[in-house]
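Task: complex structure prediction.
Instruction: return structure tokens for all chains below.
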Amino acid sequence: MEWVRAIGNGLFRGRGKALGTLLIWGSGFLLATIALNPMRRGFHSLFDKAPASRALLGGGGLDTLFDTGMHQPAFWSAATAMLPYMILLAVVVGLVLMSGVYAQAAEGSGSWRAFWRGAAANVLPFTALLLLNLLLWAVVGLGVGILFAAAWHGVRDTMDPARPWHLFWITLWSALIVVNLFRNSLGFSQARWVLTGGAEGVARCFLRSVAFTFRRFVPVNLMTWTLNLVRAGAMILAVFTLSPGYGTTGRWLATAALLQGGFLFAAYLRVGEARAQVSYARAFLEPATVAAAPMPTGKDEEPSVAAAPVSESGGMEEVPGA
Amino acid sequence: MKRTCLAFLSTLLAAAVAAQSPPVLFSTPMSPRDANYAIQVTLDAAKHGLRGEERIRWRNITDTPATDAWFHLYLNAFANDHTVFMTESGGQLRGDAFDKGHWGFCEVRSIALVGADGTRTPLVQLFPREDHTVMRVVLPAPVPPGGDAVFEVTFEDQLPRVFARSGYAGTFNMAGQWFPKLGVFQGAKGWNCHEYHANTEFFSDFGVYDVSITVPVQYVVGATGVLWKEVRHGAEKTLSFHAEDVHDFAWAAQPDFVDRSESYMGVQIRVLMQPGNRASIPRYFAAVKQDLKDYAEWIWKYPYPEITVVDPPMNGMGAGGMEYPTFITAGASPFMGKRILIPEVTVVHEFGHQYWYGMEADNEFERAWLDEGINSYYEARIMDAWYGPERSFVDDLWGWNLGEEAQERMAYLSLPDMDPIVLDAWKYVSQHSYDVITYDKSALVLKTLENMLGRKKMDEVMRAFFMQVKFTHPDTRDFIRIVSQAAGQDLAPVLEPMLYGTGTVDFRVAQVRNVPRSSPQGYDLTGAAPVLYGTGKKKDKNQEHGRVAKSPFKESYDSTVVLERRGSLVLPVDVAISFSDGTTRTEHWNGEGRYTAWTFSGPKVVRVVADPKDLVPLDLNRLDNAWVDEGDGAVARSMTTRFRVLYQSLVAILFNVL
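Output:
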């Protein structure tokens, strides 16, 4: 059950979790704030002179929003002006931050310096790994999409009224699996990169990581889906606890605080997932392959390579050139 | 009372079965019963075909002899892509696409006139319209006023894949508009028998229906009327249904319907549900019960003993959301959470048609607003009474609510003025215009009327209209006449522009001006001794003339408020004007003229709201109805928080996949 141990290592052990978590949450907060600032100003001139818009405070007001969209074209530009820039910036920032998080996980260090050193060193190869993974999984996604488009066309002729329903679930889960495979493949290639110190080169690292995620398909997916479930549970909890209205400052503050708590937890899970992937990948790499990074010691650190279970017969399968 | 009714119905049905004759549901006919049908039909489950025979007894209730008879063959609308329906719709209806691999038709194999002595005179089929959805036969002798004609017809149907209310999807079969059916004879005006248009629904006379349906034994069947006999013969069974004082008959069959029944207020509610939608069964029952209760209170107690609700499968949604006498189709989906009330709204709406279409049988081809519009108005009222007006369509979906009236207004805003409400359904510029105007704008017109009359008077007016026109074919003029009588005032000047015109209205606060009154300077001679008022500044030349007094005047303004009415629809409106001293006064404008203005002297005007109680739902833009001196930023702040959820979630997702 190395995957369980890896989740435990990722979420609860080792130094540096707080730094990564705070940086990820803080960056998200900052990026959204930068993007939302012109929107807030735009909304102020749109809504605050029109008492009818106060319906938006009480948890209602979809029709007011519709009115606004119909009669105030400025609403749409105010609401979306910064969105593309925010997305672009988020991709860049995300790559930098995740480079730091993975590097820190591999080094076992919690220092600010180690984080940024790793981020600087890994951001370009991580970008290359992202592009390779996108290319691969876009092709797979397209293929799966074509298959399902054909299946949906075929289901029109079904004699069984339940079949569209079944097909919907199959489609949904297939899409989720493809997305998850992409995430696994990318995550483990990033983990492998930091563990090997980039000794293999980007292309080989990518190919071996894809192979790894398929060879260890079940535990790798169990690991990711466990974290996904926690994530989904937290999201559902947050959505159902959201304040139904924003009419008072207290409610607004409570809602905003709950939201930020949720995003902080999501950031913590993301860091935990990256560290779990590093921990799991390390368990199946030959010691010589692992870069000469200081190995974690003590009971709250990741297990050493020697801790890899003997029962994992494929334990040495990842030896480069073997 | 409820138990007594059900016991009576059970006894009635038991007696009928024992006597091998259909039960008598109403000892006194509620309608003219001038078009009566006895039909035997067999479903070919593999081919989705119907083979049937019908005997139509028609009575001429006009004062004009009938020399011919016109029939609807609605399923022929789906025979090819050149029919009126297919040409107008382009094979698309309300987001549902026709499958050109599975056409449908209704072919009359034979038609004969049965004489009083039983002789049969074959009649020649003529097709006078643009397609074969209308058939005409010339009668060998005119049917005099008060006279009868009996037609025997054999026919064969092919159901299309579900589209525009009828057809099959898998093992689900929906037989709507499936049998050759008489048009409506209107005396000197002849037969009212239009082709099946893309936007139109139906129009027919009342009668008694006795329909026997033969299906494979494993099929569950729901239909108009009451089931009074079931006979098995080999691998098939024949179910006999009986309905009185109705003007159509529809049925649905599927082997694995989940069949549930409950009784409420003396009515047997039967729900035939898709297996995957079991969870929504209580939602359907609750909606029908709400309807039965509210309609009994507001209009008239539902007179029929049964109502059947059919849930179509996901790939047969084209058959959903449709009304037939004592039989409706709804639409649920496991994807639909409980907070989006579409299943409830659909059932409430379709049940409402039992009144507005079922009993108030307007001509849906020509004046569809009389059923769709009035029914949409009541749909909103019932849902509002049930869930509250703020959340009767979307009930707290992640902090968002939407009321029925607001939802209707949103639809209305999307195309408010391309067509008038009173218009032949096929003449609308588009399906969208037909939907928006006939359903939503019409409902908002009635809501406006309610706001003018008050809820109590509106209830009296609408009840009077229903009671006077039930089991007849009313027109818009009947509506205006009856509601005016009941309201005790001539409502034509208000209703006619809204019903016959395309005018709209938009109230706008065009101008608010606060001009500060300056304090007087110089000598005030009104007192015992002159008092010198200065400028109030440090360097005041007046000080050279002696002691300068401080002006006793309080801050004061000359204020002007201008309210503009855009659009040609003249409607009265109230305006609430608030002042800096905390007072508010309400002014009334009858809406005549392009604008009106009020002037005030005294405290500053800080807030102006036209139509503060939202009594003019037809107002095109409510955001310009008001003006405030200074906003507190709360709306912008809360909206930004909502968008923050989206934006920050997007960033979090990106960080998760990188």
